[in-house]
Amino acid sequence: MNTFSIIFLTFLSLATGIRLWLSWRHVRHMQANRDRVPEPFASRIELAAHQKAADYSSAKTRLNAMGIVVDALLLLALTFGGLFAALEHTAQAWFGDGLARGVTFIALTGIVSAAVELPFNLYRVFGIEARFGFNKMTLGMFLGDLAKQSLVAAIMGLPLVLAVLWLMAKAGSLWWLWVWCVWSAFNLAVLAIYPTFVAPLFNKFSPMEDGDLRRRIEALLGKCGFKSQGLFVMDGSRRSAHGNAYFTGFGKAKRIVFFDTLLSRLEPAQIEAVLAHELGHYKLHHVFRRMAWTFALSLGFLWALGQLRDAGWFFSGLNVPAPASDAMALVVFFMVVPVFTFFLRPVMAMYSRKHEFEADAYAARNASASELAEALVKLYKDNASTLTPDPLHSAFYDSHPPASARIARLRQLSPA
User: Fold this and answer.
1) Can you state the percent helix, strand and coil of the chain, rounding each to 5?
2) Coil, helix or strand at residue 402
3) Which terminus of the chain is less hemmed in, N or C, by CB atoms within 10 Å?
4) Is the peptide bond preceding residue 207 cis, with omega within 30 degrees of 0?
5) Which residues lie closer than 8 Å to 172 by C-beta, 6 or more apart?
6) For 82-135, how does the pLDDT look when each residue is reduced to its tens digit (9 = 90+)?
7) Torsion of CA 228, 234, 240, 245, to 10 degrees
8) E-only strand ranges, 89-128
């Protein structure tokens, strides 16, 4: 062990301890407020629905807390436990040196991580989601999705991994800049092809039928100056009772997608208001700002890896053989970095919540604030979203403002 070993273990212990403490606070807060619907919602959400939301959110939080512990133990096993070294030794025994060894090591690490995560996903879907009436998936569908996800990851990820490892070996001291360019181009390409080639592997997308709702939406799109490839309805009800709507794609490939569950629960004016909120994210450049931040942070992280790539103290401090191979350096760095960046989560969450308030204000200017508020109340109820999150837990994790704050702001924006 060296000084970095102590620093890493200290940050891992702090991050894990704080995450578990936040989970405990969150469950305790929701259960303490379980028997009384918050006043702003008392006339529209029954006590039974409020209690269901508290219990559902508590169950998910407890499962996530177990995952926090397992993730920390897995990271310790990979580093100090020598599992990284064992996986690389296996890859070397199979393929010797070269790109095949690096790709195999990365694949083996991914398989180990996925195997650890699989029991949690199974319990989440067939335990919690089923118990609270949301799951519609069969085990066959779950395993089929898993197989398709693995195949897509292999087809799309293998060329990227090969390109990154080749650049790390051949592009000299500025390899990190070239890798960043390739990674950025890859992500933009995925945004463009995902709606047409990837998403249909998992769901059926049907053009929205003509009618009052489509006319309202097209009028709103014209008013906001938004052009898309089309309006689509997704058969989300095949897998879950949750409802949602989202934009997907990039450039001319942009699509607007509504879950069929959402359309079945909201009135046309409410759907229009929800879409106006999503349009606000686009028109206020939130999407591009987040992409810019993502690309900037990835550039910073790759630069940092470039500085640490030959730093023996970094890898030996994690019980990783030094000098580390390119694949080892890449995987170790990006699995260790979240231990340190966890403490930035409140800043990132605050930035996201600011965007949500701005998109709500945009929706109020171009649709109806009161209809958006009514739609949100229905979605909170139907999706069993807690109305009483712990404030500190929310500050760390919630990308959206608490329900009470959001509804209060929309009421202020509604005409008197």
Assistant:
1) 75, 5, 20
2) coil
3) C
4) no
5) none
6) 999 999 999 999 998 889 999 999 999 999 999 999 999 999 999 999 999 999
7) 20
8) none
The set of residues, in sequence order, having a beta carbon less than 8 Å from that of 258 and lying 6+ positions away, is: 208, 231, 232, 233, 234, 245, 271
List the end-to-end C-alpha distance of the chain, in Å, as a whole number.
Answer: 66
Angle at 345 between CA 289 and CA 273, to 5 degrees: 50
Nearest to 388 by CA among 399, 379, 380: 380
| Tens-digit pLDDT profile for residues 232-262 | 899 888 888 887 887 776 666 677 888 888 8
110, 271, 273, 294: which is closest to 191 by C-alpha? 294
Structure tokens at 362: 């945009």
Region of 225 (left: φ > 0; alpha: ψ -120 to 50; beta: rest) is left
* Residue that has been written with the tokens 């709702």 in this structure: 213
Sign of CA dihedral 190, 192, 194, 197: negative
CB 34 within 8 A of CB 387: no
Q: How far apart are CA 265 and CA 259, in angstroms?
A: 10
The encoded tokens of residue 179 equal 């890798």
